[in-house]
Design brief:
The protein has 674 residues and is an alpha+beta fold. The protein has 3 domains: 109 residues, no CATH class; 158 residues, no CATH class; 345 residues, no CATH class. The protein is 32% helix and 28% strand. It is built from 17 helices and 25 strands. A hairpin with a 2-residue loop joins strand 15 and strand 16. Helix 6 runs antiparallel to helix 7. The longest helix is centred in the first third of the chain and has 34 residues. Pfam families: DUF3176 (PF11374). InterPro entries: DUF3176. Keywords: Membrane, Transmembrane, Transmembrane helix.
Length: 674
């Protein structure tokens, strides 16, 4: 906008005219750009500047831009610190349901907004420097203005200002700011991981000793009379465990740990237990058996296995009936299970007991004889007290178990049986600094007796043959008419377990189940009762004999974690560096070119409008003095230089305009002074 210098008399005349128009409640307007020397009465009376030095400093300098750059830097720094605190940690629970992504997004938005302020102001200031250096197209004003408003205008700017300029650099920043938010959103990921927590309920019991001597002694005698003599077994609890294990059709688990989260782990730990090792010895047995006819009614057979042997006698009877009926009866072995007790001197791996099974063939032969005495299957299972290192884990509710190592460190010696029964001597074992003990006097014999009574037994088959002769006299060689050549009396089993094993139940599986059940029984036994120390005068003070501590486990809970992808932060940091560089370049170029700090203000286009002509130094040669209004006197501030934005804002606050058409000027649209 250009204001011509006016005289005092003309000012008074125009003021009178203005007041006259005001008295008739009609207001006249004059175009700003056509304000002549006879229209200065339209200028309002001026007042002193309304803003103080601090405001002028903020407007004339780069206060808001520097503050925005600092705020953008602090926002990114706060984002980095916040993410660093929660990185690789469980997802935090923030009040009001605020998530870490929300905080990062807020800080990122603040950093982007303030950086946009810096880039927009710097690019707007570069507009004035662009026109200060040399004559440009007036169209460039609009191009710069569009570029400072968004990415589309910034893209158009490259076609007009070239690539190698600060203005192009500012346009590039405006374009790159489009990727600021997507990069911030890629910063945080929330993978699901297991959190390990020590939970007292996830412990697994173990044992270093097997000693039920006190319990067995309490139940072994009644009024000092040994109950074994009455046929009563004192080992009722052990016997129940053995029977349950042997009769289980499915394989028993080694461990049934409690895991509240369905995902738990335990360290590898040793524990005392019972081990069963079975071996198929059928080829050996088929080569090492024999049968001999002892008399007309019996056959004696001996079956040898690698560590044990078994003797069996077949009985057969024949009767000639007077009415020419020939009777033949027989009983033969189909399966037998027996127990053998071993000394460590005769068995190398400290086995105290061997359970053997042998089954014979029938070979589809009806008549008993050598064809039905042959071995069909033979198995030996050795039982030993052992120390096993267990590896237990629960994954998705499924127990995974592995026996890492098995050691059998207890040499056993069988003592001669007496009225109380059989007993052993089992020496203690020290493994890895831990002492393991087994009571061989009562506890181990009770276990062996329960296993023997449960598993031993046999299955036999009865056989009957009746033959009717053709005549009462001596029959011809082939003159036999057989009405009932075979009458099978069926199988006879000493126990349901023997019948089940003969019918197809796994003998090896039964022994494995017995070993697992007994091992679990040993681990579940209560710790020895505490006893008061002899030297302690306080009877309430108790101590307990050493017992195996329970093995604590870790309960793993699937938890969402915060994982920061730091590489995605490089782009926002790079944009901030570009913004600071652009601001520094704008400040430097402004100072070097001597241009006022006008930035994005639109007032300079009105107060410093187009001159009549421009010289090489950028100064108007003809027409009005741009930006000058001389003092009008009569109390008004008149015309004065308004070069800075704050000065123009003060003057603009006193001028009222509206948009309208100018009569007599082809009806063009202009801002009209009131």
């Amino acid at each position: 906008m250009q204001f011509p210098a006016i005289s005092t008399s003309e000012s008074r005349t125009r003021q009178d005219t203005f007041h006259k128009h005001s008295n008739t409640d009609k207001v006249s307007y004059s175009p700003i750009t056509s304000l002549g020397s006879k229209q200065t009465d339209l200028l309002p009376t001026q007042t002193p500047p309304r803003h103080g030095p601090l405001h002028r400093l903020r407007i004339r300098w780069w206060f808001w831009e520097l503050f925005g750059a600092l705020l953008s830097l602090l926002s990114l720094l706060a984002m980095v610190i916040t993410l660093r605190v929660f990185d690789e940690k469980p997802l935090p629970e923030i009040p009001l349901g605020i998530t870490l992504n929300t905080i990062a997004s807020l800080l990122g938005t603040l950093a982007k907004t303030t950086l946009l302020l810096v880039a927009t102001s710097a690019l707007s200031q570069l507009k004035w420097i662009w026109f200060r250096k040399r004559t440009r197209k007036l169209q460039d004003l609009q191009i710069f203005d569009d570029a400072s408003r968004g990415p589309y205008g910034a893209l158009i700017m490259f076609r007009h200002v070239g690539v190698f300029s600060f203005a192009a650099f500012g346009a590039l920043i405006m374009l790159l700011l489009l990727g600021f938010d997507p990069f911030v959103q890629q910063l945080i990921r929330t993978p699901r991981r297991d959190v390990s927590v020590v939970d007292g309920s996830t412990t697994i019991r173990r044992t270093f000793s097997f000693d039920q001597k006190d319990e067995l002694e309490r139940f072994s005698k009644v009024q000092n009379v040994n109950m074994r003599l009455s046929g009563i077994s004192p080992a009722s609890s052990i016997n129940t465990v053995v029977v349950t294990g042997a009769n289980s059709q499915a394989a028993l688990p080694d461990f049934i740990p409690f895991c509240p989260t369905s995902n738990c782990t335990w360290p590898i730990f040793p524990s005392l237990g019972l081990c069963s090792t079975c071996q198929d010895v059928t080829p050996f047995a088929r080569e090492n058996w024999s049968c001999q006819q002892t008399d007309n009614t019996t056959r004696a057979c001996r079956y040898n296995l690698p560590n044990t042997s078994f003797n069996y006698t077949y009985f057969a009877t024949e009767i000639d009936h007077p009415e020419s009926v020939y009777h033949e009866a027989d009983s033969e072995m189909r399966q037998v299970v027996w127990a053998t007790y071993l000394n460590h001197t005769t068995f190398s791996d400290n086995t105290f007991m061997v359970i053997s099974r042998l089954a014979t063939q029938d070979n589809d032969i009806l008549v008993p004889g050598s064809g039905r005495e042959q071995v069909n299957e033979a198995t030996e299972c050795s039982l030993a007290m052992c120390v096993v290192e267990h590896d237990v884990a629960v994954s998705d509710g499924v127990t995974n178990y592995t026996a890492k190592s098995i050691r059998q460190p207890f040499p056993t010696t069988i003592l001669p049986p007496d009225l109380s029964g059989r007993s052993f001597i089992a020496a203690p074992a020290i493994l890895d600094g831990t002492t393991y003990t087994v009571d061989g006097n009562l506890t181990l014999p009770a276990l062996a007796s329960s296993i023997e009574n449960t598993l031993i037994g046999n299955v036999t088959a009865s056989y009957t043959n009746q033959t009717l002769l053709t005549s009462s006299s001596s029959p011809p060689p082939d003159g036999v008419v057989s009405e009932n050549p075979k009458l099978d009396g069926g199988l006879l089993a000493t126990s349901d377990l023997s019948r089940s094993i003969y019918a197809g139940m796994s003998f090896t599986g039964a022994l494995d189940n017995v070993a697992r059940a007994v091992s679990q029984y040993m681990r579940d036994l209560p710790a020895p009762s505490p006893t008061p120390p002899a030297a302690d005068p306080n009877p309430n003070t108790t101590t307990s004999s050493p017992s195996a501590p329970a093995v604590p486990g870790l309960a793993h809970t699937p938890t969402l974690f915060t994982s920061v992808q730091w590489a995605w932060l490089s782009f926002p940091i790079l944009l901030l560096a570009f913004g600071l560089l652009l601001l520094g370049a704008a400040m430097f170029e402004t100072r070097r070119s001597g241009v006022e700090v006008w930035k994005a203000s639109a007032l300079p286009l009105l107060f410093h409008g187009l001159g009549d002509s421009v010289g090489g130094d950028g100064r108007s040669k003809e027409g009005w003095k741009t930006g000058e209004i001389s003092e009008s006197g009569e109390g008004g501030w008149g015309v004065k230089r308004v070069d800075t934005v704050d000065e123009m804002e003060d003057r603009a606050a006193q001028i009222r305009v509206r948009l309208g058409r100018v009569e007599g000027d082809a009806g063009r649209w202009k801002l009209l002074l009131e």
